[in-house]
Design the sequence.
């Protein structure tokens, strides 16, 4: 007992089964099971057949390619918009020129509390095909013809990004501000004395200072962007015939639970996992995450 | 010198007004969907079908009558969805807070064999999108006869890895001497945790309450897979069934959407005070 109080961390008094390394495989079971299922044909729980890579070969079809394109388009703009826009707001809110910054922070956070499905209904209506839909009225103000927003991949993607920005902006602002507040103010004062403009201060002090937070934000945005499902259901309902807005997860849901093809759905899931890991790995390398200095 | 100070002060003030105005306009824009939602909830569904959303308040057709439709629509099924959502949210949050805080605390405070392995596992699970585990988890649920039960919905979220991670980071910042001192006074380890550590972790519990309630209340995919009786649906699933490509039940959709925001805002306002 005495020696434990000398060490920086306390040791357990007695062994507990939960700390036994033998529990590890059980925790990983679902993950390993996905890998196994992707090489099987599953007709009911007791009727399982190993079919090699057939699931992966069948994957390269029109629906999957469409879902892939939808997901990539969304994930790309998601990362670009949700990294940059909240950063601008966080810098302004943190600069001291805004009155009542904590009030604005709270207000910006409120959309994150709402259900995507519920708010998606409002977005669906706002971007409806009728000429009287609010978005089309806005176009009419500038003399532009009405659009059928949700019928096309590119305008549909625009609405998706808008919905995501609306919901997640406040959350990312809070992450960024917490990072910005950790930067010592002396750095800015010294820069001011040297005559650095606010733009120079941003690129030479703020941006390097919040790099860890930036990496975190990009990582979770990549994850969220590739795994998006709810937003697309909110705007297009579960099984829209044309497949506009159907994402990889949406396709996985369709194959697994509508067509009851669990094996192929597992293959879709693993392709998704591979994509997320590769993109995030590239991103982390590009950001210099693995460099020793940091 | 004095002169330039005055110019500087003036520039500062202009900058402040500009920045505050920009923030204010953005805040107003972000509130527009709520405004739409509330305004539409007062209008009859036929009006919505004919004219869609509109930003103007029309006293002629507006009333709180639609809110009564929540009680009558398919025998008041909306409130059953509400109840399901509340039950799942409370159970999932309580379980998540209790279990994850203990795991996080254990990982941060104690030194034991396999600790790093367990923590690495937590990090890995955080990185794997939940979506790819859906199918095996669903199969496990079938075998355990938990399909279409609330417990089945809660099961994968009993000890969320991101919560373990958060609590671990938080506990690392607490002074370890408290544990040693209490042990010398004859306190058991559970006693130390509940009587000494938990009161010091209140802000962490507050933040995780908001996050967990948010996740649970708005979760769609997993409950959609697990639940298949109409009466047991949660609000996101239920509301999803009222929107179809062939027409929407606006009478219940819009007031339902407004009522669905209420509990989560209440949680936010209360939990925020702990921070």
Sequence:
């Amino acid at each position: 007992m005495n020696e434990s109080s000398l060490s920086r961390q306390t040791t357990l008094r007695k062994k507990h089964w939960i700390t036994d390394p033998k529990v590890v495989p059980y925790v990983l079971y679902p993950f390993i099971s996905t890998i196994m299922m992707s090489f099987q044909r599953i007709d009911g729980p007791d009727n399982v057949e190993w079919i090699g890579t057939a699931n992966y070969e069948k994957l390269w079809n029109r629906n999957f390619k469409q879902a892939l394109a939808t997901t990539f388009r969304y994930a790309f703009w998601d990362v670009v918009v949700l990294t940059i826009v909240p950063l601008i707001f966080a810098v302004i809110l943190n600069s001291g020129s805004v009155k009542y910054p904590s009030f604005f922070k709270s207000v910006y956070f409120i959309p994150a509390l709402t259900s995507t499905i519920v708010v998606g209904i409002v977005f669906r209506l706002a971007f409806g095909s009728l000429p009287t839909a609010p978005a089309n009225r806005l176009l009419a103000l500038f003399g532009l013809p009405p659009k059928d927003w949700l019928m096309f991949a590119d305008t549909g993607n625009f609405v998706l990004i808008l919905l995501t920005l609306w919901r997640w902006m406040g959350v990312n602002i809070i992450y960024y501000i917490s990072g910005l507040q950790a930067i010592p103010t002396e750095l800015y004062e010294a820069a001011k004395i040297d005559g650095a403009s606010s733009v120079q201060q941003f690129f030479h002090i703020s941006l390097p200072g919040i790099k860890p937070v930036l990496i975190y934000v990009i990582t979770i945005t990549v994850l969220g962007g590739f795994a998006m499902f709810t937003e697309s259901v909110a705007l297009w309902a579960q099984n829209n015939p044309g497949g506009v807005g159907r994402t990889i997860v949406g396709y996985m849901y369709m194959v697994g639970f509508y067509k009851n093809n669990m094996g192929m759905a597992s293959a879709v899931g693993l392709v998704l996992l591979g994509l997320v890991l590769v993109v995030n790995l590239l991103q982390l390398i590009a950001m210099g995450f693995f460099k020793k200095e940091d | 010198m004095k002169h330039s100070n005055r110019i500087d002060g003036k520039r500062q003030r202009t900058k402040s007004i500009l920045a505050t105005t920009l923030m204010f306009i953005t805040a107003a824009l972000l509130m527009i969907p709520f405004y739409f939602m509330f305004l539409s909830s007062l209008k009859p569904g036929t009006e919505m079908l004919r004219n869609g959303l509109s930003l103007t308040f029309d006293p002629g057709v507006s009333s709180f009558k639609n809110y009564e439709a929540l009680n009558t629509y398919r025998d008041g099924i909306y409130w059953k969805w509400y109840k399901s959502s509340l039950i799942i949210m409370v159970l999932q949050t309580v379980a998540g807070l209790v279990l994850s805080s203990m795991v996080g605390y254990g990982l941060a405070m104690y030194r034991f064999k396999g600790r790093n392995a367990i923590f690495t596992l937590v990090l890995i699970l955080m990185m794997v999108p939940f979506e790819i585990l859906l199918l095996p988890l669903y199969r496990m649920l079938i075998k355990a006869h938990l399909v279409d039960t609330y417990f089945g919905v809660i099961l994968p979220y009993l000890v969320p890895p991101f919560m373990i991670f958060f609590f671990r980071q938080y506990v690392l910042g607490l002074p370890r001497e408290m544990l040693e001192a209490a042990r010398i006074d004859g306190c058991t380890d559970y006693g130390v945790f509940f009587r000494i550590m938990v009161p010091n972790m209140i802000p962490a519990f507050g933040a995780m309450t908001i996050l967990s309630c948010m996740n649970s209340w708005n979760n769609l995919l997993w409950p959609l897979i697990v639940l298949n009786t109409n009466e047991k649906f949660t609000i996101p699933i239920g509301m999803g069934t009222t929107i179809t490509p062939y027409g929407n039940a606006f009478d219940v959709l819009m007031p339902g959407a407004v009522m669905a925001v209420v509990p989560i805002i209440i949680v936010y306002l209360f939990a925020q005070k702990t921070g």
Q: What stands out?
A: The first helix of chain B runs from residue 2 to 41. Chain B touches chain A through 79 residues (CB under 8 Å). Chain B has 14 helices and three strands.
